[in-house]
Amino acid sequence: MSNLKEIRSRITSISSTMKITSAMKMVSAAKLKKAQDRMSNIQPYAEALKTTIQNLLPNVNHSEIKLTKQFTEKQKILIVAITSNRGLCGGFNANILKKSKELKNQDIEVWSIGKKSADLFSRNQYRVIKKENDILDNPSRLLSQKISQEIIDEFLIGKWSKVILVYNKFKNAATQIVESTPILPITINNIDDVPDKTAQDYIFEPDKTSIINRLIPNQIHTQLFEAILNSIAAEHGARMTAMHKATDNANDLKQNLTLAYNRQRQAAITNEILEIVAGAEALNS
Q1: In this structure, which long-range contacts are made by residues 195-202, counting pairs with CB atoms below 8 Å and at least 24 apart in sequence?
Q2: How close are the terminal C-alpha atoms of the chain, in Å?
Q3: Angle at 96 between CA 243 and CA 177, to 5 degrees
Q4: Which of 144, 213, 234, 276 could link 168 by a cystine bridge, Cβ 3.0 to 4.6 Å?
């Protein structure tokens, strides 16, 4: 059993750890609010853009739409994996790798967004072809568009047959949903499933095909940026939850150690009293 000095040292150490985890929880809570606001601002635009494209697609000749078909016979897949730059957020980063492993026995390359993504996939023998870390600290539409445009350009020259976006979607502070979303090539909904909002006599200027070929890249830019904002909000939620649990666990451990410390101290005091009494009795006799 540990002596009193060791237990006292552990209690001090755990108290310091509790202060750190509690502070990290509060910082993440503050950042989460800001991330949620950014995420909610882009959602109406992203949904309206997607609906507009899916309404127009069934009325356009598909052979004239660039990004609805593959440009290579090779079945090579690009995974755009979005994680965090930092740890201490539970299974937030590991879940991305676990989801990616569902694509078994395929030729896969990884476009890493987040330091943890590059580390995880490299350790598991994936080919990481690009690393983007700065965008998570300062999320920017322009930087996100630069990344997505580079992906589109390389898809058009036949580097990959499919591009899949893997990220944590924010649900609430305690829950993140791991999403695996194909972004290229663009899928066309069944015409019967899409409300026909273009059946009226609209005049398009320029023509529908030109409009679609301008809107689809914009949708991909928006989809990637929305996924990055979702991932940032989910990261802060996951870290806040993890630090809350860590603080609670540290508090339980501190209470148990305090109890053990008090018991040992009381036992030491009792032993000293017994020794004094025994010594006094020996002198009297």
Answers
A1: 195/55, 196/55, 196/58, 197/55, 198/55, 198/56, 198/59
A2: 36
A3: 70
A4: 234
> Annotated catalytic sites, by residue?
89
> What is the domain range of residue 143?
30-238
- Hey, what amino acid is at 16? S
Residue with tokens 């967004």: 113
Whether residue 73 is predicted with pLDDT greater than 70 in this model: the reply is: yes
* Residues listed for the chain: 285
Residues 132-154: tens digit of each pLDDT: 999 999 999 999 999 999 999 99
pLDDT the model gives residue 16: 95
Only one residue has tokens 């700065």, namely 134
Q: Are residues 272 and 170 in the same domain?
A: no
Q: Identify residue 82 by its one-letter amino acid code.
A: I
- Identify the residue whose tokens are 């904002």: 229
- Average model confidence (pLDDT) across the chain: 89
Question: What H or E segment, with its residue span, contains residue 105?
Answer: none
Parallel, antiparallel or unpaired: strands 107-113 and 127-132: parallel
Placement of tokens 């750890």 in the chain: 17
| Residue 283 one-letter amino acid | L
d(CA 158, CA 156): 5
Residues 68 and 134 in one domain: yes
